[in-house]
Amino acid sequence: MSELMKYPRIMKRAQGEVREVYDQKQQANETGIKEMKYLKLVIQETLRLHPVVPLLLPRECGERCEIDGYEIPVKTKVIVNAWAIGRDPNYWTEPETFYPERFLDSSFDYQGTNF
């Protein structure tokens, strides 16, 4: 929500899409969710900048390996910093900017899990 407050243009566009899909009269339900393409971009960008779990669960290295010249011995605990990856300028143009359109023509497609 704070990102949408900082970027009113994005909030207005997302609100407009929701209103268009639900026609301002219908009760919100699952049927229209797939139609809200821009809202999906907003959610992806939000999760990039503000991951739900910034440090992923520790994993244990099952075999010796080398990554970028660093040796990772067997049984080493490895923690992935999702927060840092989401802000890494090697992977993102203007990584600190909230810009949902960056996912528009992206091959990245977060599938998630439906509970």
Automatic annotation (TrEMBL):
<dbReference type="GO" id="GO:0020037">
    <property type="term" value="F:heme binding"/>
</dbReference>
<keyword id="KW-0349">Heme</keyword>
<dbReference type="GO" id="GO:0005506">
    <property type="term" value="F:iron ion binding"/>
</dbReference>
<dbReference type="InterPro" id="IPR001128">
    <property type="entry name" value="Cyt_P450"/>
</dbReference>
<dbReference type="InterPro" id="IPR052306">
    <property type="entry name" value="CYP450_71D"/>
</dbReference>
<dbReference type="GO" id="GO:0016020">
    <property type="term" value="C:membrane"/>
</dbReference>
<keyword id="KW-0479">Metal-binding</keyword>
<dbReference type="InterPro" id="IPR002401">
    <property type="entry name" value="Cyt_P450_E_grp-I"/>
</dbReference>
<keyword id="KW-0503">Monooxygenase</keyword>
<keyword id="KW-0472">Membrane</keyword>
<comment type="similarity">
    <text>Belongs to the cytochrome P450 family.</text>
</comment>
<dbReference type="GO" id="GO:0004497">
    <property type="term" value="F:monooxygenase activity"/>
</dbReference>
<dbReference type="InterPro" id="IPR036396">
    <property type="entry name" value="Cyt_P450_sf"/>
</dbReference>
<keyword id="KW-0408">Iron</keyword>
<dbReference type="Pfam" id="PF00067">
    <property type="entry name" value="p450"/>
</dbReference>
<keyword id="KW-0812">Transmembrane</keyword>
<keyword id="KW-0560">Oxidoreductase</keyword>
<keyword id="KW-1133">Transmembrane helix</keyword>
<protein>
    <submittedName>
        <fullName>Putative premnaspirodiene oxygenase</fullName>
        <ecNumber>1.14.14.151</ecNumber>
    </submittedName>
</protein>
<dbReference type="GO" id="GO:0016705">
    <property type="term" value="F:oxidoreductase activity, acting on paired donors, with incorporation or reduction of molecular oxygen"/>
</dbReference>
